[in-house]
Amino acid sequence: MNWIFDNDRPIYVQLVEQLEMDILSGNYPLGSKLPSVRELADLLKVNPNTMQRAFLELENKGLVFTKRTSGRFVTENKNLIDDLREEYAKKSVGAFKKSMQQLGFSEEEMLDHVKEKG
Amino acid sequence: MNWIFDNDRPIYVQLVEQLEMDILSGNYPLGSKLPSVRELADLLKVNPNTMQRAFLELENKGLVFTKRTSGRFVTENKNLIDDLREEYAKKSVGAFKKSMQQLGFSEEEMLDHVKEKG
DNA sequence: ATAACTGTATTAGTGAATTGATACAAAAGG
DNA sequence: CCTTTTGTATCAATTCACTAATACAGTTAT
Fold first, then answer.
1. In angstroms, what separates the C-alpha of B100 from chain A's closest C-alpha?
2. CA-to-CA distance for A9 and A18, rounded, in angstroms?
């Protein structure tokens, strides 16, 4: 994991992003146990409340659930994960195309740009 | 022009974005005169200072220049515009590919997503 | 039962960023 | 020349968000 934080954006947001990506991409398996609030907070050198906040966001999205006093776990709802993954992909594409359009690029040119290098 | 502002992001940032896109895409011709601070501020119902701030940012990027007491004008440096346009395109592509990669999509799939519909 | 581990709630400090009111400065143009 | 139009500078208010300290609560395991 590459736990380097911007100074630009809130830490908790970046935590959510990373964790969310790890879940959506299957990096954290369905139903698996996550580290505890304090454990991860210690590991990543962030305040436990900040960690907690990140987890709460994931919980609101339904990506994790809590068994009080026992820990947090990745959801077992595969559909949710697939749907979210597709939704984010669409948003990402939408943003990309909009900005390229505003810059005056044709769809042809967009594709070329995507194909280029790495 | 579609001058609708998010509540999420600062107004001046959104002004910069819009104006910048209009310049980079050639919507505002090279060397053309821009509306005055107060004029645009009135038109768009924003505070003159907010407008001023947006213009300053554009000036820092070299996209506009000022003739004091006479007004602001779009740069005549075509290279700068072309370079910036290409730079933003690259950034946009980069962000897109990174986020799609994190979501676990292959380049093939990225291209498919871009091709789909609109 | 008690220590150690979970998550939760509440509240405050701090700091920063955005917006807005107002006054200044300089040139243009009638 | 004096009114109008341009950009500029300064400073205050307010709001907002993030982070942090600290105390609470409930299971589990030894």
1. 6
2. 13
The angle formed by the CA atoms of residues B4, B57 and B10, to the nearest 5 degrees, is: 35
Domain definitions of chain B by residue range: 11-76, 79-115
- How many angstroms away from the CA of B21 is the closest CA of chain A? 6
Tokens of B10: 């600062």
Nearest Cβ partner of B113 from A21, A93, A99?
A: A93
The Cα–Cα gap between A74 and B35 comes to 54
CATH of B11-76, one of 3.90.1150.10, 1.10.10.10, 3.40.30.10, 3.40.50.720: 1.10.10.10
Q: B48-68, pLDDT tens digit by residue?
A: 999 999 999 999 999 999 998
Supply B30's token pair.
Answer: 């090279």
Instruction: Spell out the per-residue pLDDT of chain A, length 118, in tens.
Output: 557 788 889 999 999 999 999 999 999 999 999 999 999 999 999 999 999 999 999 999 999 999 888 899 999 999 999 999 999 999 999 999 999 999 999 999 999 999 987 5
Residues 6+ apart with CB under 8 A from A111: B111, B114, B115
H helix or E strand, kind and range, residue B20: helix B11-24
Q: Where are the beta strands (DSSP E) in chain B?
A: 64-67, 71-74
CA distances from A14 to A57, A96, B8, B80, B100 (A): 12, 21, 18, 33, 17
* A84 contact B CB<8A: no
- How many Cβ atoms are within 10 Å of A44's Cβ, its own excluded? 17
